[in-house]
Amino acid sequence: xxxxxxxxxxxxxxxxxxxxxxxxxxxxxxxxxxxxxxxxxxxxxxxxxxxxxxxxxxxxxxxxxxxxxxxxxxxxxxxxxxxxxxxxxxxxxxxxxxxxxxxxxxxxxxxxxxxxxxxxxxxxxxxxxxxxxxxxxxxxxxxxxxxxxxxxxxxxxxxxxxxxxxxxxxxxxxxxxxxxxxxxxxxxxxxxxxxxxxxxxxxxxxxxxxxxxxxxxxxxxxxxxxxxxxxxxxxxxxxxxxxxxxxxxxxxxxxxxxxxxxxxxxxxxxxxxxxxxxxxxxxxxxxxxxxxxxxxxxxxxxxxxxxxxxxxxxxxxxxxxxxxxxxxxxxxxxxxxxxxxxxxxxxxxxxxxxxxxxxxxxxxxxxxxxxxxxxxxxxxxxxxxxxxxxxxxxxxxxxxxxxxxxxxxxx
Length: 411
Ligand code: HGY
Ligand code: MN
Ligand code: MN
Description:
Bound molecules: (2S)-amino(hydroxy)ethanoic acid, manganese (II) ion
Strand content: 15-25%
Number of domains: 2
Largest sheet: 9 strands, mixed
CATH superfamily of the largest domain: Zn peptidases
Structural class: alpha+beta
Oligomer: single chain
Radius of gyration: 23 Å
């Protein structure tokens, strides 16, 4: 039997075309959830779904589905593929988009090959996976999996003061399907690793067995504005300095821990943000992650204790808002082994690994057996325009997704 292969030119062409949609005046790729550039990316994806002859469905949180089904299998639970096409700020072209376009490519290849599935096969582009404009991240798939009520998600106020539901209405993606309308038989997400492991070890395929826990918080420190020149150091209630101590505390603690714990302060703003005024307020975010739930809780507790101590020492008041909290996830062993077997059959080395990044698969794993396939990220770079995966690895990963899907949907 000849081995099926995806149409590499079609996949890579779409990936590059989508990678050009939503660039700002400086050429940066920015397709934040609910934005005009998100709409442009969504429109392109739906046009490709239609050109493949698939049914299009959009749910109330704006998740988009391309569905291949026929009368014979329409009542069976579908195999669901997918990821996201929203991006971070100044993004690379592969994060999320590779998994969505590969899912569509797999369906088109199977359809054209005369393969007859025992169940529908669908591909999803989940809304707001990145969580940059509206927290939490993985929002569309979290709602889809029943982890967040859709009306609560639609009422989310963004970092720019907009409301997600109004933005989805505005861009024409406030769909009608109830989230969860398709109960997947299985879910497989193909994604770039976004880390250095596969590239460093020269393995083209990652069989992702689990995914680490994530804790997002927004911290506000209130001090007192005062004159930068006349206020003695001993009389300051400097919110900016206090914030800087938190950043150093987190980094030093994570680096000294000898565990996989990672800590990141990605956003920070001061008020009144003037060169000669001691900051009265500092607002910043903390992203803590660890594969072990107990350790993640211990890191959160250590931060809370430090903030209490800091407030007293610096005579500031500190408030904390939880933005997201997801426990570590273990994926379906059977599907992970299918990934390893598919790689073996194609003569590709694979490596069992954990995901450092959050993904929609960690949400869909709540409602269906799920797993992920990784391909290498050169230098481990991601969330950065220098993000890169060689074409040969992109094609190899999509062919593994093809094989795993054909097995999962087989009669
Ligand atoms: O935050 C994450 O890990 C993902 O990129 N949303
Ligand atoms: Mn992603
Ligand atoms: Mn991402």
